[in-house]
Structures are given as structure tokens and as C-alpha cells.
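Hello,

Our lab assistant flagged a job as stuck in the queue for most of the afternoon. It eventually completed. Since we weren't sure the result was trustworthy after the delay, we are filing this so someone can double-check. Below is the sequence as submitted and the structure that was eventually returned. Let us know if re-running is recommended.
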Amino acid sequence: MKKILLSVFLSLFAVGALGQSSDEPSFKDYTAPVYAGKIRTINFKSHPKARTFRTKLKDGAKDGINFAGRYNLSTIGCGAGCFIVAIIDAVNGSVYFPNELYGWSVGIGDWTNNEEPVTYRTDSHLLRMVGYPHKGKPGKENYGEGGIYFYEWKNNHLKLVKFIKKADAPDK
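-- returned structure --
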């Protein structure tokens, strides 16, 4: 009888553990070959905001390629629970500031504190973001629903792959 109960418990535990992450897209399903050539200097003329964040971009670029095979993803703080994501192309030096990630909110003090707000891999085009995306024009405080967003970085643009709404996320 003890063996049966132990078996049932282990089966339920395994199903619960698998069920947690099986809904999420996998980094390995969005593989990217990693560039091994010379890394270009940052082209501060490639985006109007690049000069504004010159020091932060230079500091972030020191980490080298860390995203989607040829990019450096850096975060820049913009207030309590807010940050901007900059993506620097190591091949040509261009800088990108995706609008959805320009003023991302993690909602200090609410449900997002237990999870990493940004997860990415050097060899994957997938980007996992926890919190609230910016909506509308940069500089305006307008946010989307709270949850986990999965984006694919493709052709220097973000494409939403999946959104998992968090039931306990407060309205912004």
C-alpha cells in the first residue's frame, strides 16, 4: 500500500512540475547561431535615443553577445520598477529600442517580485518578459496587461509569440 501511495504522489508531483513550464515556449525552439566574428563599435547615430543612453549602452556592451546569437541586450533603469531594453547588434553596431520594452514595468510590490523580469539566452531568439509592456508612444505612461510575455526577436523586431495572463496581476 505504501508503494502505491508513494507512486501516486510521485506521479502527481511530476505532472504538476511539468505542467508549470509546459505552457511556456522553450528557448531551444528558437535557436540562433552565435556570431564569432569581430564585434563592431556601437553606432550611436543608428537610433535617435542611442546618444541619450551612451554610457549605459557602452557599459552593457562590455558583456559581449548575450542574446539571439549576435546581439547584446541591456537594461536601463527609468524609475522604480521601470526599465528600458536596448538591443545592440554586434555585427553592424546598430541600436534598437523596441517600443514594447521602452518603459517596461515590473510593478514593484506586486506579483512580479518572485520572478526574473527578463530572461534570454545567447543562442536563442526568444525573450521572456514578466510584468507590463509599454503601450503607445514612448514617454506616455500606458501599460498592457500584467503577465508573462514571450517575444521572438526576428529581423530586428519583436514578435509576440505567447502571453500568459497572471490572474493575480493588478490592473495598471
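-- support follow-up --
The delay was a queue issue, not a problem with the job. The result is valid. Residues 53 and 126 are 24 Å apart (CA to CA). Residues 2-22 form the longest helix (21 residues).
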